[in-house]
Specification:
alpha+beta; 2 domains; 12 helices; 11 strands; about 35% helix; binds zinc ion; RepSA; Plasmid replication initiator protein
Length: about 475
């Protein structure tokens, strides 16, 4: 974490501040707050802090100091304290990945995800470029059907028959991509809400079973044992979870075969992309997990859906799908969450709250089912009440195997290093190099903006966003992404 080193005159900042103030003066309720802000003795420094957080929507305020000593002489090399900062505190980013919570931090997260996924495909960030020549696939694993739902394009063909609840079994319409009915069941009473919620809850286990199974299926193809195959190759992967409109989780995954020591070694010659694709197909199809033992659950098996998309990523220029497009496609999902399925972005505390939510009846039924199942003692371990707002899914948005690529932490450290090199500014939390020791004491003193601060931070975030490279990189993939679904 570095503070901004540029110190433009306070007068410049004040002019910029007044220009912004003029833009927003139409809002009387924040007038007083603006006046207060305008009278801050260190307004320029405060604006600098906001810029340093990228205009974060909910910055965390810290108070404290950091002092770096020379270990040999004991002399103080650097000292920084928030004593001289506005309000005696320093703002740092909230680092929330959700666009609904913080636009600037989610954009940074998307950018980091892009770098992380791309490094695993093309090398860089400590990964050798030879990974390009390893077998690499882009795979989408889906959930099965829990009952027919309206779908974009040609919906279910019109039917003269009705279900036992009197709902027509077909639809016959053409739905546009943004029609509200997409993902809503043809008959909510026929829809398997229990199966759907349990599937979301089991999705992380299904992914783990898939990875283990993939080793087994590769071993079978190589004619070696299940333990021996891990001495021949490694499966490296990064996957992201996406909520479909119907509220089921999908996984988009980059899967790469490495040699026994990881990205720096080539897999055996027999382990081709075609063989890997075959193994992915059979490994995914073979998974059938038993559900938890409960009278509320019928005789079901938890499986992946039959729709399985596999794209080979070729190393040559002739590849239909570029590595960049895949990285951008995966990255864009990390700023989204369950709200794309029409659910809510916060934990719920009661059935009354669930009844009052402004969501679709389908989302409410999924949330209420999770709440109900979460109250059963035998399903307590699934923590379905805590994750009801996520429709039962409690996994991470993005996971990767250790060897796939670099980490978010490393990307942030690199960025801090870069900022420090540019600005010669302080690092609050880590030692610079050997031969020094840093004494740092930090205390949380608050979070978030006042109304006027929020407006100014938003303006700064907009200015920064306009000049971001990543926007251009992601623009290519603004619509459906590089893959037809
Ligand atoms: Zn933030
Ligand atoms: Zn329809
Ligand atoms: Zn029905």
């Amino acid at each position: 974490m570095a503070t901004q080193s540029t110190t433009p005159h306070d007068a410049d900042w004040r002019r910029a501040f007044l220009a912004r103030e003029a833009r927003i003066r139409a809002l009387p309720e924040i007038d007083q707050d603006l006046v207060r802000l305008g009278q801050l003795p260190h307004l320029g420094r405060w604006l600098e802090q906001v810029r340093a957080t990228g205009g974060c929507a909910a910055p965390i305020y810290l108070s404290g100091h950091t002092t770096t000593f020379d270990t040999a002489t004991g002399g103080v090399l650097r000292h920084y304290s928030t004593e001289d900062e506005p309000g005696g505190r320093l703002a740092v980013r909230c680092r929330n990945r959700r666009a609904t919570r913080c636009g600037p931090c989610s954009r940074e997260y998307v950018g980091d995800t892009f770098q992380l996924v791309r490094a695993g495909l093309t090398g860089g960030k400590g990964i050798p470029e030879t990974v390009r020549d390893h077998p690499r696939l882009f795979v989408t694993l889906t959930a099965p059907s829990f009952g027919p739902v309206h779908r974009a394009g040609t919906c279910h063909s019109v039917s003269r028959t009705a279900c036992e609840h009197g709902s027509p079994r077909g639809c016959g319409q053409q739905h546009g991509d943004s029609d509200d009915c997409i993902g809503q069941p043809l008959c909510p009473h026929c829809y398997d809400y229990t199966g759907h919620v349990l599937w979301n809850a089991a999705a992380p286990s299904l992914w783990k079973a898939f990875r283990d199974n993939l080793y087994h299926h590769l071993a079978a193809r190589a004619g070696v044992g299940r333990t021996a195959v891990r001495g021949l190759l490694r499966i490296s992967a990064a996957k992201v979870a996406e909520y479909q409109k119907r509220g089921a989780v999908h996984f988009h995954a980059v899967i790469r075969l490495d040699g026994p020591t990881g990205p720096d070694s080539a897999p055996p010659a027999w382990a081709t992309a075609v063989l890997l694709a075959d193994a992915v197909r059979t490994a995914a199809a073979a998974i059938a997990l038993a559900p938890p033992d409960s009278a509320a659950i019928g005789d079901i098996r938890l499986r992946f859906g039959s729709q399985l998309d596999i794209h080979e990523l070729s190393s040559g220029d002739g590849g239909r799908i570029t590595d960049e497009a895949v990285a951008a496609y995966v990255a864009k999902y990390t700023s989204k969450s369950v709200e794309s399925a029409g659910a809510v972005d916060r934990r719920l505390t009661s059935l009354a709250e669930i009844r009052a939510l402004r969501v679709t009846e389908h989302a409410r039924a999924l949330i209420a089912t999770a709440w109900h199942l979460g109250g059963l003692p035998e399903l307590e371990h699934l923590r379905l009440r805590a994750w009801a707002h996520m429709l039962g899914y409690r996994g991470h948005c993005l996971t990767k195997t250790r060897a796939y690529s670099t980490t978010y932490g490393q990307l942030r450290a690199d960025r801090a290093e870069h900022a420090r090199a540019l600005a010669g500014s302080h690092d609050l939390f880590t030692d610079w190099d050997d031969g020094t020791v840093t004494d740092a004491v930090w205390r949380f003193v608050g979070q978030g903006h006042s109304p006027a601060e929020k407006l100014i931070a938003t303006g700064i975030a907009e200015d920064l966003a306009a000049s971001r490279d990543i926007a251009a990189e992601l623009a290519r993939d603004r619509h459906d992404g590089p893959f037809r679904r």
